[in-house]
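Hello,

Our lab assistant flagged a job as stuck in the queue for most of the afternoon. It eventually completed. Since we weren't sure the result was trustworthy after the delay, we are filing this so someone can double-check. Below is the sequence as submitted and the structure that was eventually returned. Let us know if re-running is recommended.
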Amino acid sequence: MDRLRAFEVFAAVVAQGSFTRAADKLETSPANVTRYVNDLEELLGARLLNRTSRRLSLTDTGRTLHERVSAILEEVAEAEAVASSASVQPRGRLRINAPLTFGIAHLAPLWPRFMARYPEIELDVSLTDRVVDLVEEGYDLAVRIARGGSTSLIGRKLAASRNIVCAAPDYLARHGAPQTPRDLRQHACIGYTYSATADEWVLLDAAGKPHSVTVRSCMHTNNADTARAAALAGRGIIWQPTFLIGADLRRGGLVRVLPDYRLADIDIMAVYPSRRHVSAKVRVMVEFLAEAFRGTPGWDLDASRVKARTGSTPRGRQSAPAASRRSRA
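-- returned structure --
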């Protein structure tokens, strides 16, 4: 049995929903199509299709095989085009994973433009803050947030984002502003569950020296938007990337604190399985994203206008003593 031909026939049956229509598409006989599918099921020792008089449906095994077969056929078509010096037309299903907040705010507006440019590519976008296994879960590409300078990811850097420690003016008016990282111990902080350091915040001074402090978190969350909402409501101090809070800083809804210290920057990266060659659809997506984020990212525009909260508090009051701050919390 020609296994590649069997895969092609099986994919055609699934796409057409009928043995007869698949035969017409492939310009062969229905009997020939049936033979290929039966031989493939016998070879694998599993039923691939549920057949009734009215419709066909994939079994669980058939669904798994179809996903793999579709990818194989796409790669074969691309390889043939390259070998014949023809231009590769990107096509097929492109499964992408991205973080929830970044995906909604900064990637969702880009997808319609990409779809208009590459109508033969079918996007399948999944948003989750969990780090997925690209190979195990069948993703072609992921957009990930990584520590600046990370060497553990294979892919392309799209942009960078600063991490800023900040709070709402209302919170600072009631509790004063921290002057050193150590002062954070006396404040209500909002922790991000997916941070590698949890409640241990590591800030760098102007010389690059790290200052580690274990904060008192009044709230933990695995969603950055939730942390941002709590901070905007005056419930505590957060650190978050400018791609999330840049607009809040410019509007004054959040105010930077500890301006003489910083957290390590993060990179926005497009990554893909290193054990597979880069297909045409992945390549054009990476190039598209790199083009979209070229230059200074929108979240860092007008960064020089962002005011930092120093030792003074609104209306000229001095930062409250630690005991007083706790009594008013």
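-- support follow-up --
The delay was a queue issue, not a problem with the job. The result is valid. The radius of gyration is 27 Å. DSSP finds eleven helices and 15 strands in the chain.
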